[in-house]
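Reopening: structure tokens for the NAP complex, inputs below.
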Amino acid sequence: MPTPKFDAVIIGAGFSGMYQLHSLRDRLGLKTKLLEAAEGVGGTWYWNRYPGARCDSESHSYCYAFSKELIREWEFSERYPEQPEIMRYLNHVADRFDLRRDIQFNTRVTGARYDAEANLWHVTTDAGESFSATYLITAVGCLSTTNVPDMPGLASFKGRWVHTGEWPHEGVEFTGKRVGQIGTGSTGIQAAPVIAETAAHLTVFQRTPNYSVPARNAPLTEEFRRHVRENFDEIREVMHSNTNGHAFRISERSVFDVSPEEREAIYEAAWEKGGLQFRANFSDILTDLRANETAATFVKRKIREIVKDPATAELLAEIDHPYAAKRPPIDSGYFETFNRPNVSLVDVRANPIESITADGVRLRDGTEHKLDIIVFATGFDAMTGPLLRLNIEGRDGLALRDVWSAGPRSYLGLQVAGFPNLFTVTGPGSPSVLCNMPVAIEQHVDWITDCIAHLRANHIARIEPAPEAVEDWSEQVNVAANETLLPQASSSWYLGANVPGKPRAFMPYAGGMARYRQICDEVAARGYAGFELSAEKV
Ligand code: NAP
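Re-run output (same inputs, fresh job):
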């Protein structure tokens, strides 16, 4: 059978792939195919169905902003949208823009190879199919390759184990069960309170204690919904002009501009209000360690106030990194959960997990925790993982895996030298995970779409970054990270430190979304400065 040939192949039907399909097909008129491993749209949200799964971005900012009609016709019901509601939204988008007819579901991409002579990408799938396209666009998400730690004995476990990022669609019944949860990141902090409601007993295995601020989730009032309807243009302007793409402004005052009493009152009010804007109350929380310590001390004190058992409170509050240097979670009753009689906390930093036995978890000192279900809330091989498992080969058989063996290097997180016409939506080197994702995604998709329109209008066959541009941008990514406290959380997934053997490199661009947007716009305006463009006939 001849290989079907497209103008563009997109991989992944989450927020980014769906908008990329709409843009290329309906705006540029390109023959486009989207390949998706799952049975349906949703990307990250398709797989992350764990108890308590909810977005930490506020719902009025966690949506597409490209279509006024879409904004008018969809309203989320709560301050933070829960996973099933996000799935309803994304399915609505798929229907509304008639996307499904160009999406092939149940199709996992297993390889992609650039053919220089034909100037085509050849994409292969797990079903043995092939597709060819001039442009290949990865829309595979940053947090979509699960990280299950290689714990000896897991295969011998007689109970059931699950990872939060590949949660069974039929759900998991915890009633009457002894449940062990490994991991206390954003996911574990959302899951534990819900699991504890029905489990006979929940044991939380904590390696690194984590900050968390209450989410204060609630149904949206009619008044707030009206405010969003009437002011969406202004809200979007805030999202586009700040560093992190959220709908709140970041204060310009510094921590030490105010008296200790005022500061306390500001933190207290922010704690009561809840949400990720806790860190937006001062401009220097993420750049000045002394300033950061005031926020850290406040949150640690709150933990000690909430958790009644002093030993448990200490274990939870002995946090070793600056506040928000790891992605800061927000929660619905996480610390309160440890006051329940059916919940216990185990410190696996002091006494690590040595193995999984037939009956549960065994620690180094020989203690065995008997369990019926183990929940791995152990995160992801973030950012590079989803790209590397595509087995991408560029010019002259150059493997992306080899090019990135010491950590990812790209130009603007959009392209990699040696991989012509390959675009990586929210790739490493772009703000991506440091930004409210739909904002980062729309900026990337719009930039890529404009770029492809430019190539076609000017009969340019290939675009790829100049090696010097990659060098320079990689340096800028490092500089931007080092201007913040983020690299100080040495075990963070931003650095790749959560996956054994993964090279340590700070992966997202920490210079802020607004600055990044400006850089990308300037690059395009200067005729795609830093990129090498080749004419149709060489
Ligand atoms: P994560 O932040 O990487 O946390 C993983 C947890 O598992 C950490 O507590 C880690 O401990 C622990 N862990 C890993 N391997 C372990 C081992 N071998 N033994 C013991 N503990 C181990 O992963 P995540 O919570 O899934 O979150 C990842 C990201 O997804 C978040 O940062 C966020 O960006 C996103 N997310 C967003 C939302 C939302 O918007 N609602 C919700 C969930 C997640 P260490 O810290 O010691 O490594």
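The pocket of NAP is lined by residues 54-56, 143, 149, 182-188, 190, 205, 207-208, 327, 348, 353, 377-380, 433, 491, 493, 498 (CB under 6 Å). The mean pLDDT is 97. Marking as resolved unless the reporter disagrees.
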